[in-house]
Amino acid sequence: MRRSPRRRGSLAGFAVLALMASLVPISVLAADRSENPSANPLRGEFTIGKEGRLIVLPVTLSNREVRFLLDTGASRSAVDSSFKGELGQSRGQNLLQTPSGRKPAETFDWPDARLGNQVFKSALPILSIDLDPLRRASNEKIYGVIGMDVLGRCCVQIDFDRGLIRFLEGLSEQRDELGVKVRLEFADDGSPFIAGYVGRETPEYFLIDTGAQGNSLTDASFDELLAAGAIRAGNGFASMTIAGELHGERGRLGGLTVGPFTHRGIRVARVNVSSLGLRYLSRFLVTLDFPGQALYLKTGPSYERPEPQATSGLMINWTGDGKPIVVSVRRGGPAEAAGIQAHDVLMRVENKRAEDYDQFSLRQLLTSKAGRRVSLVVQRGKRELNVELVLAED
Fold first, then answer.
1. CA dihedral of 338, 339, 344, 347, whole degrees rounded to 10
2. What pLDDT score was predicted for residue 62?
3. Which of 49, 113, 133, 247 is the most buried (most CB within 10 A)?
């Protein structure tokens, strides 16, 4: 039996997701828990991106409207280091555990932060970190993270199909309408986990991570399942994290079961936590009752949506003016075969301006189907080159 998340220590954190990557978590170490994690639970309804795009909310911060990522995989809330001069008194440092080692982050008294007309804050100091890697990887102007120190007192419903998030005052007495109830458990830092099964009914605890689009397994679980033939190895992945670029292994699960729901062929990355991200969660209407320690899943139109089937061999970030730029090219992959090089800027994709794609839609295109031919125009220095990229099976 896999260990309970309560005995795992601090596992959750900020996920920075590159175009072709899965989850890369960054953990808060030695974070004190509070019995009153948020002064008031959030309320109201807000529009978000559909289909499993990152959940980004408009927040007024020091009289400026900026965008915050809603991230249940982050045990603590954070604000971009560019706001450091507008934060309160320094409260020292925490350590963030990254795949590349520990990274210090300064903590401060909370600034005036409002979602709609609601002031929100945590009893814990807010982290100040450089979120530029997240902006470049997601093509979203994200300047803050709402973590579990704020969300832990909230009831949150995410309707991926309608593109809505609701902070509820309470749950309807007709809770059967919310779908299947799954018990939430919490790690010592407040991070939410559910129990499930992988492979041939091997138990596993999964972090519920709305800050990442992909899914993952711990190194040990991935290796065990691979040796048992319960994971089919795929191509490697590359991802950009706050601590820099990360490369790793990826594969497809023979089976993933949560409650009564079983999916086959779910793609997972080998990193330092087992997690379910937006690509899995967006198959459902999701209701997170954190005070009641319950997750409700109701199947939606995307329940049987196929997983990404192909790979381009590209790792892409975005420039400040919204153009996709190639960070790296996987050796032996389709992009290398097409002659694409690091630092090439994508100008046109399928006869459409590259900046007209968001990160999500471009990733969908470049992972759609093996054998698909994707026409590109790339800028290399002062030259523009026409390229045909043939996607390969992942």
1. -40
2. 82
3. 113
Look up the CATH number of domain 310-393: 2.30.42.10
Instruction: Measure CA 394 to chain center.
Output: 20
Residue pLDDT, tens place only, 204-224: 999 999 999 999 999 999 999
User: In the chain, what are the domain boundaries?
Assistant: 5-152, 175-299, 310-393
Integer distance in angstroms from the first to the last C-alpha of the chain?
30
Q: Is domain 175-299 given the CATH code 2.40.70.10 in the classification? A: yes
Q: How confident is the model at residue 2 (pLDDT cuts 50, 70, 90)?
A: low
Q: Is the pTM of this model over 0.85?
A: yes
The phi, psi pair for 342, rounded to 5°, reads -55, 145
Which of these, 367, 356, 295, lies nearest to 321 by C-alpha position?
A: 356
Phi, psi of 310 (to 5 degrees): -130, 170
